[in-house]
Each structure stands twice: as structure tokens, then as C-alpha cells.
Amino acid sequence: MKVLLVDDDPLFLELSKTFLELFHNIKSDTVNSAQEALERLENESYDVVVSDYDMPIMDGITFLKTIRDRSIDIPFIMFTGVSKEDVIHKAIENGVNSFIQKIGDPKAQYSELSKKIWQAVNSGAG
């Protein structure tokens, strides 16, 4: 299984990659923009996209819409510090598979993220 992690914060990307690979045995690639992620999705195969919401140029909702508009059939998990109801609602409207907030204990966050990744892959959601 391979996950594409998308976040404009390079330190957070490395932390995410480390937690998922070392503690949850989930291989991942990282990119720091939605545009770069779209290029990767055209050229490589991934099982799940995990994306932040609050990114410059293209936010997570626009990124999700673009993936769905291009008929890229892949589970999409939004992993973000933003907890606004309208963002959550828009994500659901546009076909997000899961929404996880970046708050609290990192170990618990990544345990939850890992569960959502495995659920998305095993259910064939996307």
C-alpha cells in the first residue's frame, strides 16, 4: 500500500511520513502542494490521498474537487487543523472519504489516520 501525503508544511509532512511508516507500516510519498500532487497522481499509483485543507494556491477542497472532476478514483482523507463546519460540509459534499483533525496527541492522531487509511483501502472506497 502507498499513500500520497499533501501538506504545505514540510516538517509536518516528515512527521506524518515517519509515524505512518515506522509505527503503522504504511509507505508514503510526500508533496507540498496540491498541484504537485496532481502531477504525481497522473504518473504514479497510490492507494489513498491524505491532504491538508489550508494550503496556498489550491486548498484541500479545490484539490478534492479537481481529483473528482478528473475521475481519479482514489480514496481521499482530509487531515487538517481546520475545524470549521462549512469546510467539513464542503469536503463531504465533494466526496471526501474521511475527515481527521490535527489536534491533540500525535500518537492518537496517527493511529486514527492509520485506521482510516486501512478502512479506505479495504473497503475499496474512492
UniProtKB/TrEMBL annotation:
Q: Which SMART domains does the record associate with it? A: REC
Q: Name one Pfam family in it.
A: Response_reg
- GO BP term, example: phosphorelay signal transduction system
Q: Which domain of life is it from?
A: Archaea
InterPro entries recorded: CheY-like_superfamily, Sig_transdc_resp-reg_receiver, ST_Response_Regulator
**Alphabetical keyword list:** Phosphoprotein
| Species the sequence originates in | Methanosarcina thermophila
Name assigned to this protein: Response regulator receiver
Modification sites for 4-aspartylphosphate: D52
Q: List each copy of the Response regulatory domain by range.
A: 2-117
Q: Which PROSITE patterns match?
A: RESPONSE_REGULATORY
